[in-house]
Specification:
The complex is a heterodimer of chains A (about 250) and B (about 220). Chain A has about 250 residues and is an alpha+beta fold. Chain A contains six helices and five strands; from the N terminus they run ααααβαββαββ. Chain B is about 75% helix and about 0% strand. Chain B has one domain. The chains are: A alpha+beta (about 250), B mainly alpha (about 220).
């Protein structure tokens, strides 16, 4: 009898095949298990990072609110309350009514400025390019701002989007004034049916992208971009200025 | 041309390409070229032995031994990030088994063909399969992995040697069966071997000509 006809040999072959199949199965299950474990751990870590980031943004939001309250309080205290106090004093000392009237007019104008600062007037009826123009105009002389408007649609943005875009523009221009030491600023606005695009570019000192530490301004920008479901990119290089591009879906 | 010669032709093409592009090849591809050369040497040796002896069965354990040593070296030197003691130990155990079986079948006693049932090739294939699976496990577990390199090569090795292990297990049946069934199985085996060698040759060609040595 040849070896292959021996039942013991056949049993051994079957046993070897079973061992081979089980070894492969064992490894496949082991690999899948460890891979799944790693994937779950990675997902958990990612979720934690996202949560921490959101927490940071929330903190920034609260800080920004506090700063805004401080600014309004300072505005009221330094200008309006000061003026009103003088009017009161003058009325007690019997100053001419015309002087008091003039000072009251100034106080009303100051109150209006503070109110406009908080929410631009007629925001629902003004278009975004004019609203941004209003933001840019006071800085035009100091920063040599060139403002290009390219509006290709008649569709208006909602007041919620407009107010956020105004705040972004204010933040960017204020940042340039505070930190960039720029002599020229270019603001390019494009409004189409699909997108609203705003590019703010300066020729200031810039910074290395690797050294960028997100401050209150950038966190606030990110928060607003998240709210608008928009995309943004900040590019900068030492000595070559900074450019901020934001793209907001118009619908 | 007989299908049996197909693998020799593929091996020759691979070796020629390997020699032509030798300087441009990575260490792994040089190693694969050496493997093709080793396989061709085994083919030539089996023909030569057949010319002088009644059978060339003695080649099988020697071939298994060399192939296993080669793959233990390939995995520990090129494919795994660092040599693994467990795999080296497994390779050593396999080598001892193959040597012991060789001594038992060809030195201390001469086994008749009807009783010749070697497990050397099965052990060799089994160890290579475990190394291929271990490679997958280690890569799947490597957290900082950005690119799964050598994935396809390892998958091909795993499939080829699993088929090979099953093919070589009923060796006694294939050399003693008179029904002719074994020729169909051997034809499939030869085709699979030729395909495996063709894949290795394509890797050497891609690395040499297109300079794409980091294979996915």
């Amino acid at each position: 009898m040849e070896k292959w006809q021996d039942p013991q040999v056949i049993a051994l072959w079957i046993a070897i095949i079973v061992v081979l199949v089980f070894t492969i199965l064992f490894f496949v299950i082991w690999i899948m298990y460890t891979g799944y474990k790693r994937m779950t751990e990675a997902n958990l870590r990612e979720a934690q990072t996202a949560l921490e980031h959101q927490k940071k943004l929330l903190e920034t939001n609260l800080q920004a609110q506090e700063k805004e309250r401080e600014r309004i309080a300072a505005d009221l205290h330094d200008s309006l309350i000061g003026k009103l106090s003088v009017i009161r004093l003058k009325s007690q000392t019997g100053v001419a009514i015309n002087d008091i009237d003039e000072m009251l007019g100034e106080s009303i104008a100051e109150a209006r400025r503070i109110s406009h600062d908080l929410t631009p007037p007629l925001i629902a009826f003004s278009n975004i390019e004019d609203l941004i123009d209003n933001v840019v105009s006071p800085w035009q002389q100091k920063l040599n701002i060139t403002y290009y408007k390219d509006v290709r649609t008649a569709a208006a943005l909602s007041p919620e989007i407009k107010i956020q875009l105004i705040r972004v523009a204010q933040e960017l221009v204020t940042n340039i004034n505070k930190h960039a030491q720029a002599t020229a600023v270019v603001i390019h606005l494009r409004h189409t049916n699909k997108n609203f695009i705003l590019l703010v570019k300066d020729n200031g000192r810039g910074y290395e992208a690797g050294q960028l530490k997100k401050g209150l301004g950038l966190h606030s920008l990110e928060l607003r971009m998240q709210y608008l479901n928009a995309k943004y990119r900040v590019t900068s290089a030492q000595g070559k200025g900074t450019a901020t591009l934001i793209v907001v879906p118009a619908t | 041309m007989a299908i049996g010669h197909l693998s020799c032709v593929v091996l020759c093409i691979g070796i020629i390409l390997g020699m032509l592009f030798y300087k441009r090849l990575s260490g792994l591809h040089k190693c694969l070229t050496c493997y093709l050369a080793l396989m061709l040497a085994v083919e030539v040796a089996s023909v030569a032995v057949m010319m002088y002896c009644s059978s060339n069965l003695i080649i099988l354990p020697i071939f298994s031994f060399l192939e296993m040593l080669f793959f233990v070296y390939l995995y520990n030197r090129y494919l795994l990030p660092r040599p693994d003691k467990l795999l080296l130990g497994l390779g050593l155990a396999g080598a001892i088994f193959i040597i012991a079986e060789f001594l038992q079948n060809f030195v201390f006693a001469t086994v008749a063909i009807k009783d010749f049932q070697p497990y050397a090739k099965v052990v060799d294939n089994f160890i290579i399969v475990i190394m291929a699976l271990f490679f997958f496990y280690q890569r799947a577990n490597s957290f900082c992995e950005t690119m799964f390199t050598n994935f396809r090569l390892n998958a091909v090795i795993l499939i080829f040697f699993t088929i090979n292990a099953i093919m070589f297990l009923p060796f006694n049946f294939f050399i003693n069966d008179n029904t002719g069934t074994q020729f169909y199985v051997w034809t499939i085996n030869v085709a699979v071997i030729a395909l495996f060698y063709t894949y290795l040759v394509s890797l050497i060609y891609t690395c040499g000509i297109k300079n794409k040595c980091h294979i996915a």
